[in-house]
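Q: Predict the assembly, please.
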Amino acid sequence: MKTNIKKSLKFIALLVTSLLIASASATYYYSLNISGTLTTFTAVIFSPGSDWPSGSTMGAGNTSVSLALKAYPNTTLTYTQALKVKNMGSNAAQIRLRNVNIDNGTSDVGNFTFLKILLIDSSSEMRGYLNYTVSGNNFLLSSSTDYVSISAGDTWSIRIETKAKATAGTDISVSLQVALDVQAES
Amino acid sequence: MRFINLREIKKSVCLVLTLFILFTTPRIVSGSLFFCLTSNISASVSSPPVILQNVTNSFIYTNYTSARVVVPNGTCDLSVLKILNQTNDPWKLQLIKYSDNNVSRLTNCTIWVHNGDASVQIKIANGIYSKTSGDFYNFLPDMDTYITITSLTNSSGISYIYTYLKILKPNTSTYFLYIITFELT
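A: Predicted assembly structure:
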């Protein structure tokens, strides 16, 4: 019987390949089917700072907050540490400030000069900001919102500055929503 | 050799690479969490808790939160501004120089706050500062406080000292700043 060596070798190669692919697939699916326990863990949280404004409230799990700020006419009011930002995780996390929404176009807005929200690290360096200045009845936003790294266990703060116009009346208010985006390793 | 040709080598390499990726990729499992913390902020304009009032030669601006004080040469221990606490809360006061102009002609300029005890906040002797800010001064409810000044010059002209009156909430780092400009003739 004449043996075709070339065909035999091809067949063997095909067989080996099939086996390898099969075992590789098995490994692959095995990995996907690892079972585990899912626990809720928030790496970065808020906590009240030493200048926590009265009337403010902290949400459940310290992941949301409602801040009640004041502004005085023709003077800059500074909450040096309105809020703390704590990284409770065991890894560094990336965080940034982000504007979500702000009241605009109302006459109340025209009574303000600016609102500034600044992210300050544990060395008192400014690492990001949202600066709302007023033109007419509108807030104009300038910002620095790149992600920055907060080390595990580190505590930063959020500083807020407000100023109303010299002629501002009382009982005038505006509201805004700001997010602190977090990217953390699981 | 018939078996070893370039095409076969390419196929083999592709096969090895494919298998390598299949074996290694599932084992490199990593992930990251993305979430955002939300902050709802409301800011409301309130009446200033502390106001300025003219005593002598002071011009008070709207809402009583800034002032310009004109001080003639030869002024001695003159109270120019009164600081009134509009709340029942205690505060701390501090005067801070943030800019100036033509102060070399001032042979003696001393600015202090007092409501009994005096606290020197800014002092210039022969055009040189020996104090650009003072210690925090306790400002209790129902305890009106005064800003008093002495000024002597060695030549004609006008000097300016631009200051912030820092008003600090005790035991916090919450503060606000009033601009007070001293115009020394």
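Chain A touches chain B through 72 residues (CB under 8 Å). Confidence is low (pLDDT under 50) at residues 26-36 of chain A.
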